């Protein structure tokens, strides 16, 4: 959302020029309100990348945005803009889905479009970066145009463009950033670079109107496990993180080894099969039981699962749909036992993290759980018990906003845009060899001293300074220039 180098840009002149935007009845808007959030049903449909997408494959939803660098607009100036006049296009290509959405400043989702790479995931048993990049490149123009069409808008109606710049796969991030800069440059629009994990956390503020800072957030996906304390916008303390593999990776590998349908991704496939199994039948050890911190490790649990599968002589190349009754029961028992222990690991770390967070911010009332794995109903149920016992309220976005999507990017971009954090419009004709600001390894917050672990093996080489440290540096710079 912000760049390594800080700049200050002039006020944007496009912010108040959209007084009346009308929408066709065939392209309804979607408004999430506090009392309706539990009634929300996903209308977004995805299409496979193995065949050309048709226009009918896209559906509406919400959008989220960010910028590549911080340019500070005085708060007195930004506060006067009417949220109804702010419209942001959000673009997300950090991993395996191509997504775009358009969101209004008041939280109205004007459109959402997602192009799925489900067939590629099934073919390669996971994300293959080069193939994912090629898939993004094939559909990015179509996805963005469809998002605008379904919002009944053109680029001239936008206030800004938001795009994920990290963390994620460099090859994939580049596709989205190139498209965002092309749109922004062609139509003289400011651009907001978004932190993917912050977007997962902040989209909950679109759903739950009572969610204000400070709050806690557990962000769980295929590549990340992070527990943060959100002090304010752009200011986070990291209480715990992944030491090796994230829970989503463990779900994906377990699903693959059990011969499940990877087109749905590993989490939903394992959760469905686990309903048929005995969660206490296989005695897996809970990871990091003796480490009194809030960090996560799933590499060891993955090894335990693989050994259990080998012991039962389960052939992962044989689909579960073709397994014998006994073989299917064995697979279901392993799935259920794995899921129980994987989530128990989350529970134990979250319980400790809440205690730490209450010491730092005694007034917190909410804990957000978001990211792809947060769509798992078993995960939500177990964590809700932990949070309730600590007298907090659990906030989970609907499943359609937990997985990677353009809405979360657009909304995060809007939040930062309001306080003047954005980049000025890029050149209309950017050279082909332009080096984009990509941040594949980009921490969200500053590490809590008590949360450091000797077991942590996370590499620090080529890691970008955290979002929090950059924003703090910018705030300090502003204070110094105003003295």
Automatic annotation (TrEMBL):
HAMAP family: TsaD (MF_01445). The keyword Acyltransferase applies. This is Glycoprotease 1. One of its GO terms (cellular component) is mitochondrion. Homodimer. Its main location: mitochondrion. Its cofactor is a divalent metal cation. GO terms for biological process: tRNA threonylcarbamoyladenosine modification. One of its GO terms (molecular function) is tRNA N(6)-L-threonylcarbamoyladenine synthase activity. The gene is GCP1. Keywords: Acyltransferase, Metal-binding, Mitochondrion, Transferase, tRNA processing. Binds 1 divalent metal cation per subunit.
